[in-house]
């Protein structure tokens, strides 16, 4: 997990805007299988959107904002990624590719 500056965050948000969510967190809540799936997606794409469908299925009395923040932190920890932003029920995560030649955003992020 890396710390992003506000400029770096804006760059990643701009690149994430046209993307569709590639993973979903559903009724069964977050589990290791979903963490592995998101990690594989980050290996392939570096920048991944995750839809939180669980927020629609919340029990009465649960706070949606707190639940989303908790999910953001869990995904960061399990996938060793960086949370870029959550808008509504869609969160964006970034993790640089392991192979330097596969890094799509490194040059642009290093300039910011």
From TrEMBL:
It comes from the Bacteria. Residues 2-106 form the CRM domain. Pfam families: CRS1_YhbY. Coiled coil: none annotated. GO terms for molecular function: RNA binding. InterPro entries: RNA-binding_CRM, RNA-binding_domain, YhbY-like_sf. Keywords: RNA-binding. The keyword ATP-binding does not apply. This is CRM domain-containing protein. It comes from Treponema saccharophilum DSM 2985.
